[in-house]
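Suppose a colleague, Dr. K., hands you the sequence of a protein chain of 412 amino acids and asks what its three-dimensional shape might be. Before reaching for any lab equipment, you can write down a predicted structure in token form. Begin with the sequence itself:
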Amino acid sequence: MNTNKLWSADFIKICLSSFFLFFSFYTLATALSVYVTDGLGGTGTQAGLSMTVFVIASVLLRPFAGQLMARYGERKIVIMSLLLFLLFSVAYLGVFGYAMLLLVRFFHGGTFAIATTSTNTTAIGIIPEHRKGEGISYFSLFMSLAMVIGPFAGLTITTHGGFTAMFILCALCSLIAFVLGASTKRQKDVLRSSSANNVSADTMPKAKLHWRDLVERKAIPIALSGFVVAFAYSGLVTFMSVYTQEQALDQYASYFFVCFGIMIVLPRPIIGKLLDRVGEHVIVYPSIVIFTVGMLMLSQASSPASLLLSGGVIGLGYGALLPCFQTIAVLAAPVHRRGLATATFYLLFDLGYGIGSYSLGALASGYGYRAMYMLCAVIIAASSVIYFILHHKRKRMTTEADAEQALSTSGY
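The predicted structure, expressed as tokens, is then:
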């Protein structure tokens, strides 16, 4: 077996499964606000609440994903979570009112949390150890592609084919995600390593559940940086369609996400390799600056050119930032707790996204979307301070302490 190989058949399948999973999510995330206001006669606040309910379920259930995988095995949880995600994707076709929509959104959000955590953990286990940064970067690229194509498809299909066509598309994508995910198997050597570091479910002593069983403490510092970025990013996905309508640029909203996606995709191979070779700080700080500038440009966009240019700049900054944060979270944890580290990172990311969707929607109702996006730029810039204090400075202090200990041990 070639342990250096990254693009194995199973890695490709789990990447594609993740793509279709997130494609369904982002298609709904972008178009559902229009469905609530136009299809169900709801308000803008109700549209934001439909996203918040989804995220609340994700936040509640994601901490248990690591426990479920440890007890029942990764593959079983991947299969069951993707199957349930598929079933609730089909359930949108039977929605007949706002209350029922919220119920479906809640259960859909819970299955999405477990499915994304389990597929991420499977992918991380397949990636060779010395290529984690590159591998996670490529894996998250598929999520980023879905982030681009999903909103474009959602806005286009609802405009020309209606909401039913959009729900059917999401159900079909969920089916493909299930088939690909269910057929993925982790490499045998990874399984042996995992079993060596974990007590099997059959021999595991029955003990009271502790918070450390649900959250990986070492991933929390970088996850808090992710929380802040997700808070600001939620305004982009949730309210872009409404913002462009306000600016009479709604026909360019879907193309904004195309520009956004192109600038995520193009530099991704370079970013993954740089992360493994030169470290995370060289990428994180410039990415935060670029992301901040892009959001400021969006807040002032008044023409198609300025709107599309802001999409490209935001894509470059955000597209480099997310895989760096995720890789830092994974590598901070012991090998046998990397699934829990992934869950912890996305737990706080989801929480930031959910709180941001509701809070920024309320802000936009009072002060307008331009002011909302300007605030988002300030929040993104503030994430650099949080990153420095909680990760960069702490890591430097730990490195210096280790060096001093090594010197004292050697007798110098």
